[in-house]
Design brief:
- The protein has two helices and two strands, in the order αββα.
- The protein is mainly α and 201 residues long.
- It has one domain: Helix Hairpins, CATH 1.10.287.3240.
- It has a two-stranded antiparallel sheet with strand order 1-2.
- Strand 1 and strand 2 form a beta hairpin.
- The longest helix has 85 residues.
- It starts with 7 loop residues before the first helix and ends with a helix.
Length: 201
């Protein structure tokens, strides 16, 4: 604990600090709770996206084995544009997937196997699910980092700043109380000596 001045001004400053810390602490605690809820929600959404991705992959595997014809899906799965917007959750700026645009249209029905359209659409759904999952993962990471910082601040206020202020106030009050008691004792001694001198005169 840093050395403090044992004065009335310092006592007022410490009381003001304590009031300010107590006023900000509930706000930080509320932010922490909101962040915890959002992090849990995002974790559930991530798990749901993984399951949806797994289901999509299983659906593709179930029918893709039926077709032996080779077909190059790569040109139809290239993303031309991924637009990310910016959202805000509990004061944290997060990326939000607004749109994903694929470069090529669907395959030419005359130059490709009949099942290729459905195959391209299924693979595009899989790509979009992965993209959504990656954006959710990034949101989760950003909110997790903010939660860690907010938790540190809450702990700083609860376990360090508020107890330090209380201890400083206690020490200053004890010192000032001792000073006041000593002043009263000195005044009584001085009065007693004055009375004794006057009685001799």
């Amino acid at each position: 604990m840093a050395k403090i001045k044992l004065t009335k001004n310092e006592l007022k400053a410490q009381r003001d600090d304590l009031t300010r810390f107590r006023r900000f602490l509930p706000t930080l605690q509320l932010k922490k709770q909101s962040l915890q809820a959002e992090v849990r929600r995002l974790a559930r959404e991530l798990a749901e996206r993984r399951k949806a991705e797994e289901r999509a992959r299983n659906e593709i595997e179930s029918w893709v084995r039926l077709f032996a014809e080779p077909f190059d899906f790569a040109p139809f799965l290239v993303l031309d544009e991924v637009r990310l917007g910016q959202g805000n959750i509990v004061g944290v700026a997060i990326p939000v997937l607004e749109a994903a645009v694929f470069t090529a249209r669907l395959p030419d029905p005359y130059a490709s196997p009949g099942w290729s359209d459905e195959g391209v659409l299924a693979l595009r759904r899989l790509v979009l699910l992965r993209l959504e999952r990656e954006v959710l993962r990034l949101q989760h990471a950003l909110l997790g980092e903010e939660l860690r910082t907010t938790t540190q601040r809450v702990n700083l206020f609860e376990k360090v700043k508020i107890p330090e202020c209380r201890e400083r106030i206690r020490r200053i009050q004890i010192f000032l109380g001792d000073q006041q008691t000593a002043a009263v004792a000195r005044a009584k001694l001085a009065k007693g000596k004055t009375s004794a001198r006057e009685s001799l005169i």
